Description:
By secondary structure, this protein is of the alpha+beta class. The protein is 23% helix and 32% strand. Pfam families: DUF7128.
Amino acid sequence: xxxxxxxxxxxxxxxxxxxxxxxxxxxxxxxxxxxxxxxxxxxx
Length: 44
């Protein structure tokens, strides 16, 4: 589930599985469909 949160007067959409933040709700929903709840691969 994507959670809407506000930080620095900007609305963000957070993936509940991994905590990744998105500025676009559609992007967050697309990410969450494929999220495996591990750290994003680009951080390796």
